[in-house]
Amino acid sequence: MSVERPVSSEFTYAASGVDIDAGERAVTLMKAAVEKTNRPEVVGGLGGFAGLFALDVGKYRRPLLASSTDGVGTKIALARQLDRHDTVGIDLVAMVVDDLVACGAEPLFLQDYVACGKVVPERIAAIVTGIAAGCTQAGAALVGGETAEHGDLMDADEYDLAATAVGVVEADAVLGPERVRPGDAVVAMASSGFHSNGYSLVRRVVSAAGLDLTATPVGLDRPLGDELLEPTRIYAKACLALVETLGVDAVHAYAHITGGGLAGNTARVVPGGLEAVLDRTTWALPPAVRLMEEHGVPREESERAFNCGVGMVAAVAPDAADAAVRQLTAAGIPSWVAGEVRTTDGDGASARLENTYR
């Protein structure tokens, strides 16, 4: 004998914090932006259980696949505070594709992961539209992703982002410390702002100093919130084009300047027994960094937590430095020779900054 069980609206997925209909609407809103990122190698479209990408192995002699995973970090807290969600997706893409290009890899495709307390279709669409814009800048296809609603773990307006990108590079064209030589020029590429690092410190300063995100501080030409949400510059296409033009005999290594600062990340592409020395007089410390220092951040900490105006560096053969600067600047990335690679005592690898900013 069957027992009829009462149906309760309390025990539904939506009542538990997961709105399937909202998730489907979010996909509809973001679909056009995502489809614009397609490359010829993409097979199928959105909606499958996996993204398919037909790698043309005939194009390569000995292809190596490269992968990178990252997130945006606490910059998202500022996006929530200002209720602006269309730029953090660009930050997300930049964090992974510019890590890929550091070894010379071309970004092929990317997948994102969005965890949120509540799916608000318009907000999710804004985030993913930003991701799609970043992929377009990088030349990578956005082949899929996941939006997870965690209503019992996160506040309704809370979310976090992560992504993984896959790229390809010829085995004999991998860039890195093995190619760097004494006398190489260190070419600096300007950042667009704080990028996506140091925001726990930035937010602490803003809170402690009572800074108004809607006001324009002395030294800046726009509201502080706009300055802090400026998306990360994506260097991938310009860096790949530089290798294509000058060759790996001239372009030896790239360092993506993220957490750890300029010296810490540059040291990662310097071989043992060598030191990269960057001259602070070749560029000006950005006004936003000076603002942080005016409110208590020591210079030493600035140079560890922030990029201080340089988002990527390249180690290039000295006779190629001027050509590299010209090409990068023409591509829209202000660049300059900031230093050189020198021999040093011992077997360790290092990088340091000398002199005083302009």
Describe the structure.
By secondary structure, this protein is an alpha+beta fold. The protein is built from eleven helices and twelve strands. The protein has helices spanning 20-35, 75-82, 88-101, 121-138, 199-209, 224-229, 236-246, 261-266, 287-294, 299-305, 321-330, and strands at residues 42-43, 52-53, 63-71, 106-116, 141-149, 159-170, 185-190, 251-256, 274-279, 310-316, 335-343, 350-354. The strands form three sheets. The protein has a six-stranded mixed β-sheet with strand order 8-10-7-11-9-12. The longest helix is centred in the middle third of the chain and has 18 residues, at 121-138. It is globular and about 80 Å long.
Topology (elements, then pairings):
Layout: H1 20-35, E1 42-43, E2 52-53, E3 63-71, H2 75-82, H3 88-101, E4 106-116, H4 121-138, E5 141-149, E6 159-170, E7 185-190, H5 199-209, H6 224-229, H7 236-246, E8 251-256, H8 261-266, E9 274-279, H9 287-294, H10 299-305, E10 310-316, H11 321-330, E11 335-343, E12 350-354
Parallel strand pairs: 4-5, 9-12
Antiparallel strand pairs: 1-2, 3-6, 4-6, 7-10, 7-11, 8-10, 9-11
Helix pairs in contact: 1-4, 3-4, 7-11
What are the salient characteristics of this protein?
358 residues; alpha+beta; 6-stranded mixed β-sheet; 4-stranded mixed β-sheet; 11 helices; 12 strands; 32% helix; globular; PurM-like_C_sf; ligase; PurM-like_N; ATP-binding
In brief:
The chain has eleven helices and twelve strands.
- State the shape: globular
Structural class: alpha+beta
Q: Terminal Cα separation, in Å?
A: 87 Å
Main pleated sheet: 6 strands, mixed
What radius of gyration results from the CA coordinates? 23 Å
Main sheet: which strands, in order across?
8-10-7-11-9-12
The ordered H/E elements are HEEEHHEHEEEHHHEHEHHEHEE
